[in-house]
UniProtKB/TrEMBL annotation:
<dbReference type="InterPro" id="IPR011009">
    <property type="entry name" value="Kinase-like_dom_sf"/>
</dbReference>
<keyword id="KW-0325">Glycoprotein</keyword>
<keyword id="KW-0547">Nucleotide-binding</keyword>
<keyword id="KW-1133">Transmembrane helix</keyword>
<dbReference type="Pfam" id="PF07714">
    <property type="entry name" value="PK_Tyr_Ser-Thr"/>
</dbReference>
<dbReference type="InterPro" id="IPR008271">
    <property type="entry name" value="Ser/Thr_kinase_AS"/>
</dbReference>
<dbReference type="InterPro" id="IPR017441">
    <property type="entry name" value="Protein_kinase_ATP_BS"/>
</dbReference>
<keyword id="KW-0808">Transferase</keyword>
<keyword id="KW-0418">Kinase</keyword>
<dbReference type="InterPro" id="IPR045272">
    <property type="entry name" value="ANXUR1/2-like"/>
</dbReference>
<dbReference type="GO" id="GO:0004674">
    <property type="term" value="F:protein serine/threonine kinase activity"/>
</dbReference>
<dbReference type="InterPro" id="IPR001245">
    <property type="entry name" value="Ser-Thr/Tyr_kinase_cat_dom"/>
</dbReference>
<keyword id="KW-0812">Transmembrane</keyword>
<dbReference type="GO" id="GO:0004714">
    <property type="term" value="F:transmembrane receptor protein tyrosine kinase activity"/>
</dbReference>
<protein>
    <recommendedName>
        <fullName>Protein kinase domain-containing protein</fullName>
    </recommendedName>
</protein>
<feature type="signal peptide">
    <location>
        <begin position="1"/>
        <end position="17"/>
    </location>
</feature>
<feature type="binding site">
    <location>
        <position position="427"/>
    </location>
    <ligand>
        <name>ATP</name>
    </ligand>
</feature>
Length: 750
């Protein structure tokens, strides 16, 4: 069986608020959808079938494959082809054309998504005897030949922020005895602005390395580590080398040389690049291969280095594609798919080719945002490809075995299940719960149209036998709230703080949730307002990656003339301006997220019973202490002596902006995301003589190094149970924001 995989990725201009955007996964030649192990949901697209197996592949005026065949590929092994393509308009065309002597061109799946423009620079140094630089790199099409995790294991698509595959380097070593794997770095890379980031390479690349395998410094002077790669003869390549000093015991102790062939050498001086250990960086070069068809790269120690050491973390090699003079034959059919205009033919016989194309596009001049005017009442048809039979649900949950019950919420009961070999969460509506058919359909419609690393994925749904069942990816670590505080059997103190999340972890979780919400607000579908942001709707996977969940009351962004809607939300998180005016905007989500930020900081519920009115509502309580300049008195005592004060100031400043009474004064979610990422960077700055400096911090939030913190007094009072998406109706508007909580009545959960 012949297998072909072709990959394309799309790239947009980078911004500080970049999140992995829309993707299109197309299962070509099939009438059913397919979900991969990494949650990529391939949509069925049936293409025209012909007969043969040699083909041309053209895109954006470049010939990507010529006289290409998968005939000699190993049995059962897919052939993967990945390209980085620059386009200057919002639409492009891919042509699959039979070669001469053949009458078939085929592909089985296509993957398309956008990524940051900064992934590849426009200018890079030439590595060869002729020095200088190569300009216009972003206008070229690049074919990924190698992506190597040096010193580490295979990295699969679900472990990479841009769904890339990385392979180990051992097979490419010229002398395996010259190198050894460094110890695995258990911490997290300290990404800094202007250098490598989480999209440059996954953190696993920067947690492993190859280093010299020689015992004493004297003998190391005569050794290099060399890797040899088979490449096209006399061709031009873009090569990226990844570095992260996880091998040195002290800063400024290592410098070494990087060699490309015998023509070029480059000083690698980590301290000069980053000023500290464990900060990833990379070097890019344009390299012309020679007539041998082999590219040799090496690292070796220098005499002027304190420690005679050399290391490397990762290598990427991409070949320049040549512009095509091939004339595309006139199309016989004008039909186009609404995801990517694909012109070509797919043949049938019995060829199963697992393939997907990833197009990396940079410098899109126009990214048109489609305004969505749909109301929830004008519900889009449900995606029938996501429908799961009731029999399969029963099999997955062992007939709803009570031993698999993992929780209950506003929607009903939640069970752990095993569906098609994958662990899932199964939410089953129960009679008497507030959520009805409309919310059930809304969740399906919303989640079938969006996909993001920080949004919980919908596997499918079941509406047989009057059931309303939703099947999601399983989130191993539960809700964010579960990691902040727990219920207690003590009536006088029903909540107590937990200590399993560090401040850095809390910031990373908040950043993940903010990325998910920012994607909702700014995605290509015109924007979606969640309407029920809270700590129980932020779920954590086994690696504590945050994902936003529960879209039953979500709303597509409405035109300005039609944005008055019924109030839905949860007590304690509800935007007072939205409650009073019935005017829903994405700033209502920002307010709710501000409450979550306070919850993360203070480790207490958003609402709790107290004989002191100001303690009932966490938002009011937190802002009260902020105005007093004593917010440190109510933060989680588990965080004592662990927070960089500048990080705390930036976090508190961000929270205060989110909780401002007027939506016009609140930041956009992308700005919240930027501020949280900045707070994380401040947290990673080591303390210097017991002081920190952050000139950008609001002066009103300046307070000295944190004293010993006190337990939050309100935790000694009974808590008010949180209600899910309580529906509220207001007939008169002569109330103030401070009166909102006296008006709210706890009704049935939806």
């Amino acid at each position: 069986m012949e297998n072909l995989i072709i990959i394309f990725l799309f790239f947009l201009p980078f911004s500080s608020a970049y999140t992995r955007p829309n993707e299109h996964f197309i299962n070509c030649g099939s009438d059913f959808n397919f979900t991969g192990n990494d949650d990529r949901n391939f949509v069925a697209i049936v293409l025209r079938v012909h007969n043969q197996n040699k083909r041309h592949l053209l895109s954006s005026g470049f010939e990507l494959l010529s006289n290409f065949s998968v005939k000699n590929s190993p049995a059962g092994s897919p052939v993967i082809k990945e390209f980085l393509v620059n386009i200057d308009e919002g639409r492009f065309k891919i042509n699959f054309i039979p070669s001469q002597g053949s009458n078939i061109a085929f592909v089985n799946a296509i993957e398309v998504f956008l990524a940051p423009e900064s992934f590849v620079p426009d200018t890079a140094p030439l590595a060869g005897r002729r020095r200088g630089s190569f300009d216009g790199l972003r206008s070229r099409v690049l074919h990924t030949v190698y992506r190597i995790n040096v010193g580490g294991a295979t990295i699969t698509t679900d472990e990479d922020t841009l769904w890339r595959n990385w392979i180990p380097d051992d097979q490419f070593l010229s002398d395996p005895t010259s190198a050894k794997n460094s110890s695995f770095f258990s911490g997290e890379p300290a990404y800094t602005s202007g250098r490598a980031n989480e999209y440059t390479a996954p953190s696993l690349v920067y947690k492993t390395a190859k280093e010299l395998n020689v015992e004493d410094n004297t003998s190391r002077q005569f050794f290099n580590i060399t890797w040899s790669f088979n490449v096209s003869k006399s061709s031009r390549h873009f090569v990226r080398f990844h570095f992260n000093d996880i091998v040195s015991s002290s800063i400024d102790s290592v410098k070494f040389d990087l060699y490309i062939y015998d023509k070029f050498d480059k000083l690698v001086y980590p301290y000069n690049e980053t000023g500290q250990l464990e900060v990833p960086f990379y070097f890019d070069f344009v390299v012309d291969s020679d007539k041998s068809g082999v590219m040799n790269v090496s690292v070796g120690p220098r005499n002027d280095s304190e420690n005679q050491m050399a290391f490397l973390n990762g290598i990427e090699i991409m070949e320049f594609m040549k512009e095509s003079s091939f004339v595309v034959p006139e199309e016989r059919s004008k039909k186009r798919t609404n995801l990517v205009p694909i012109v070509g033919s797919v043949v049938g016989a019995v060829v199963f080719v697992v393939g997907f194309i990833v197009a990396m596009v940079m410098f899109l001049k126009c990214r048109k945002r489609k305004p969505l005017s749909e109301k929830t009442s004008n519900m889009s048809p449900l995606d029938l490809a996501l429908r799961i039979s009731y029999y399969e649900i029963e099999q997955a949950t062992k007939n709803f075995d009570s031993g698999l019950l993992i929780g209950e919420g506003g929607f009903g009961r939640v069970y752990e299940g095993l569906f098609r070999g994958k662990k899932v969460a199964v939410k089953r509506s129960e009679p008497g719960h507030g959520q009805g058919l409309l919310e059930f359909q809304t969740e399906i419609v919303v989640l079938s149209r969006i996909r993001h690393r920080h949004l919980v994925s919908l596997i499918g749904y079941c509406d047989e036998r009057s059931e309303m069942i939703l099947v999601y990816e399983f989130m191993e670590k539960g809700t964010l709230r579960d990691h902040l505080y727990n219920r207690s059997s003590d009536v006088e103190k029903p909540y107590f703080a937990r200590s399993d999340l560090s401040w850095k972890q809390r910031l990373e979780i908040c950043i993940g949730a903010a990325k998910g919400l920012n994607y909702l607000h700014t995605g290509s579908d015109g924007g979606i307002i969640h309407r029920d942001v809270k700590s129980t709707n932020i779920l954590l996977d086994e690696r504590l990656v945050a994902k936003v969940a529960d879209f039953g009351v979500s709303k597509f962004n409405l035109p300005d003339a039609e944005h008055s809607v019924d109030v839905k939300g949860t007590l304690g998180y509800l935007d007072p301006e939205y409650f009073l005016s019935l005017q829903l905007t994405d700033k209502s989500d920002v307010y709710s997220f501000g409450v979550v930020l306070l919850e993360v900081l203070c480790a207490r519920p958003a609402v709790m019973a107290s004989n002191r009115r100001e303690e009932v509502n966490l938002a009011e309580w937190g802002m009260l202490w902020l105005r007093k300049g004593q917010l440190e008195k109510i933060i989680d005592p588990m965080l004592v002596d662990t927070i960089n004060p500048n990080s705390l100031r930036k976090f508190v400043e961000t929270t205060e902006k989110c909780l401002r009474p007027s939506g016009n004064e609140r930041p956009m979610m992308r700005d919240v995301l930027w501020d949280l990422e900045y707070a994380l960077q401040l947290q990673l700055i080591p303390m210097n003589n017991g002081t920190f400096d952050d000139s950008t911090t609001n002066a009103s939030l300046e307070f000295s190094m944190m004293p010993v913190l006190h337990r939050l007094p309100s935790n000694s009072f009974p808590a008010v149970e949180e209600e899910d998406a309580t529906v509220l109706s207001v007939d008169a508007f002569d109330v103030t924001a401070s009166d909102v909580f006296s008006l709210l009545s706890v009704g049935e959960a939806r």
